[in-house]
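Technical note accompanying the year-one report. For the benefit of new consortium partners, we illustrate the data format agreed upon in the data management plan: each record pairs a sequence with a C-alpha cell string. No post-processing was applied to the example shown here.
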Amino acid sequence: MHRTIAPRLSARHSIAVSFCAFGWCTVGLVMLPGCSQRGDQVGSNDPGRTAIASPDAQRKASPRRIDAPHLPNPIQVHPKVISGGLPDGEKAFEALQSLGVTTVISVDGMKPDVETAKKYGLRYIHLPHGYDGIPDERVKELAKAVRGFEGKIYIHCHHGKHRSPAAASVACVAAGLIPKSESLAILQLAGTSHHYRGLYESARVVTPLESALLDELSVDFPESVEVPPMAEAMVAMGHTHHHLKLIAEAGWRSPADHPDLSPAHQALLMREHFTELLRSEDVLKESDLFRQSLRESEQAAEALEDALRGWAATSPAADAPPPEAVRRHAAAISANCKACHRQFRDVPLSEK
C-alpha cells in the first residue's frame, strides 16, 4: 500500500517582507501549499525510476558552477541535478533544454511559467518552501523527484542563492545521490546567506532515506499550486522590489535598459503593496509587532516616493546624486527589513 503525499494548506502562514536600500533583500514565504492543478503521480512501480548513482558518479557530483549565461547562479549539484535561479523568458528555457534538462522544479512561491516550459519540452513541478527550512514531507517529495525522474532536473527559486541550493542539497542527500559530506558545500558555493539558519539546518541534519520508503511513497507532483492571497501579494511585492533594486543601482534614476521604470512610481507601488496587506484578513490575524513592521515600511515607502518626486521636480543634472532624504528613507526600510526577518522569517522550523 502506497503512502500518498498531497500538497495542503496550512491554517497560518508565517511571512516576512524586506527591502534593503542598497543590498535589497527578497520576499520570504513559509507555506504548505494547496494544489491548484493535480499533477502526475509517481508510485512504487515507476518505470522511469533511475538507479542511484554509482560511487564514481557521486565523486563527480562535487558542487561546481557551470556556464549558463541565461540562468541565474547555476550550480551543478549532481550529474543529473542543477540548482539555480528563475528561468525567465525564452532564452532561459532554451538554455535548460540545451543542458539536457527535462524536468524543472520550482521551490519558489511564484507561479511557474508552465506554458513556456512546455514549448521547450520541459515538465514543471511546483514544490515551494520557505526560508526557515525544508519540512520533512517536502524533503521526501524532493528526494522522490530527483531519484525517480529521467533526464536532468533543474531546481530553482528566484535568485538561485538560498532556497534552491538548500532544496537541491537535501533532495540529493536524501535520495542517496550525493554524500552527506557535500550538503553544506552546496549552500556555501551558491552564496546562501548564513542568516537563513533554517536552510543550513536542513542541509546539516538531512540523512539518506531508505530506498523502500521512497519506493512506497506515492506523490502528486503538481505543475502549479495555489498560494494564499497574502502570499500572492508577497510575490507581487517581490517584482516591485526587483525594480527598485535596479533603480537604486542606477542612482535612483530609470535604468538605461529599463527606461519604463519610473523611480517615484515604483515607490508608490511598493507603498500600495503594504497598504493592501494591512487591510487583509490574514494580516489582521498576525501579531501587533508584525503589523507595526508593515506600517513602518508603508510609511517609509511613502516618504521615499515623496522624496523621489521632489527630486525629479528640480530637474537634477544627470550626474547629480539623490538627496539625503532618499538615502535616509531607503535606509529606514532596510533596517525594518532586517528586524522583520530576524523576528518572522529566518527562525528555523525547529525553533517554531
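Partners are asked to follow this layout when depositing records. The CA atoms of residues 153 and 181 lie 21 Å apart.
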